[in-house]
Amino acid sequence: MVRRRTPTKRTDAGKSGESRLPSPDPATNLMIADVVLRGANLLLRKRLEKGLLTGQIGSDNAKRLVENRGVMSTVALWGASRLATRSPVGLAVVAGGLAAKVLYDRGKRVQAKRRTRKTAGTTPDAES
Length: 128
Hints:
Layout: H1 26-57, H2 59-67, H3 71-86, H4 88-121, H5 124-127
């Protein structure tokens, strides 16, 4: 028969002055955690962005594209992410804008392919 264990309680929980955190001030501990989380988030995000782009445009171009992002682009992306996370309507607006951008880019690619086919078909080398 298996004996049921009683849950053990932490001995330092609730005691003042006996914390395993770096500072006795809770506000300082919160700031430290915030800095660590934001730093880790930034490193992970840049790594993921480069990894996603590497398959499409190569490692050097991906690195240049991610690291040379301008201030306006950064602010616009931050604003869009804030708008999308605050309300369902904001999410719908941002998702709709992104969908429109994807459709616009695909349309431009199709137009470019048509132009290259048209010019390739009318070159003198193709007629002979």
